[in-house]
């Protein structure tokens, strides 16, 4: 028996077998079940999304011996002949005479003119099913006589699901990355995806493996792209050029490599900012998420998509790709003080579970209002009254810092600066208040509104950074704040409000401003006043 292509063998024969297009299926099934059948239907959409398939199933539903029905039997002569593509009723016999015109936009002007009259006043037994990939070329008079269904491009997840179903039924071995690569290459078309799947199975000798798929499509494996990110995080320029040379030896599509790189950066950012939204297979990116700051990831992503956009303008795609990565290596975000932002310390790939516990029964006294914390305090600034141990004091035991002291928030803010806590871990630290540092344990309090920040990767990174700043191993214990201790973030907001009010008062009391108000009836808009940065 001759081989039948997967796209033909697995062509849906019932509405329930269709992938996607639920909005179209629902409208057609309701129309069939209620008997409200319009005489002309127009299906639009890109290639391979099911236009002709839906039209054939609809024709089968109309002429099934048990119909019209939204669930054709698939066994009567009408159903079997339509499935086999030899049903004369699509033109001449049966309960309904169904005219299926594919790529209807290619009809000539004279053919459209001949079609218009019958579309306007068709016999009750005639149905027109029109399909097109370019509805803009249809006459408005034709469009107004049809019910229009816009078929959507299929998502990669929908294509992956159908491929997995087919490969399981066919008994063909496969791996997940190989299917994902094919689904992205299908570009929203299931038919294109199944044609590529046929090609990949033949290329792989009856199996589907990622390295064979990449070789067939001229793309680069995700693991190799991840190596590029690891090298960029380490700042090793020589190793970066070596890896670019290794990737270039495969003569890949460099635009696809940049697309893959942008996708990985997106997954890293999700791990950093919204850990709950990360996928189950993102565990191999945890270490990278800990080593690279969130601002670095944002900057790198922008450089990647810009490099992808400018790739056609480069002397060669290889040069454009190389320059995009060298730009990522060269530029590092600056801190608010204008200094270069150093790369964070490494974080192990295996992280512990969150250590969020309820508040202890011990009463934690309130903290008096501290002095305003200036916006541009140097990173080495430490409060003078009760300095924390310097990094070199490895063997010295740190004094206990209790919440009852008058400068707890200042001391905690100073330690945050010393530990260079930026991005998500910095947000966690600034939204917490320091209870005490005792016996290698940093006790922090979080208000209920910010407890979601205390996730395992951030706690582990916080321990790493604080340990590096204090010169010894540190464990972080997070408790619930039930007494309202002021945090560095709240201190900052309070100080900013004070500065803003002072600035507004200074403007209002200025003699020149008073003169303008008195002469012209002007008024000061508070939102337009900004304090002068020190």
What structural class do helix, strand and pairing data support? alpha/beta
CATH architecture verdict of the largest domain: 2-Layer Sandwich
| Tally of helical runs | 21
Number of domains: 4
Order of helices and strands, N to C? HHEHHEHEHEHHHHHHHHHHHHEEHEHH
Uncertain spans, ≥5 residues at pLDDT below 50? 334-407
Strand arrangement, major sheet: 2-3-1-4
What is the overall silhouette? extended
Helix content: 40-55%
Provide the fold topology.
Layout: H1 6-9, H2 22-34, E1 40-44, H3 51-63, H4 77-84, E2 97-101, H5 109-120, E3 126-132, H6 140-143, E4 147-150, H7 156-170, H8 176-186, H9 190-203, H10 210-217, H11 222-234, H12 237-248, H13 254-273, H14 286-291, H15 294-310, H16 317-330, H17 408-418, H18 423-430, E5 432-438, E6 441-446, H19 456-470, E7 475-480, H20 488-508, H21 511-520
Parallel strand pairs: 1-3, 1-4, 2-3, 6-7
Antiparallel strand pairs: 5-6
Helix pairs in contact: 3-4, 7-8, 8-9, 8-10, 11-12, 11-13, 12-16, 13-15, 15-16, 18-19
How would you sum up this structure, described in words?
This protein has 534 residues and is α/β, with parallel strands linked by helices. It has 4 domains: 6-150, 3-Layer(aba) Sandwich (Rossmann fold); 156-217, Orthogonal Bundle (Helicase, Ruva Protein, domain 3), CATH 1.10.8.60; 222-330, Zinc Finger, Delta Prime, domain 3, CATH 1.20.272; 351-534, DNA polymerase III, tau subunit, domain V (GMP Synthetase, Chain A, domain 3). Helices cover 47% and strands 7% of the residues. It has 21 helices and 7 strands. It has helices at residues 6-9, 22-34, 51-63, 77-84, 109-120, 140-143, 156-170, 176-186, 190-203, 210-217, 222-234, 237-248, 254-273, 286-291, 294-310, 317-330, 408-418, 423-430, 456-470, 488-508, 511-520; strands at residues 40-44, 97-101, 126-132, 147-150, 432-438, 441-446, 475-480. The chain has a 4-stranded parallel β-sheet, covered by helices on one side. A 3-stranded mixed β-sheet has the order 5-6-7. β6 (441-446), α19 and β7 (475-480) form a beta-alpha-beta unit. α7 crosses α8 and α13 (254-273) runs antiparallel to α15. The longest helix is centred in the C-terminal third of the chain and has 21 residues, at 488-508. The radius of gyration is 33 Å and the shape is extended. Mean pLDDT is 80; it is low at 334-407.
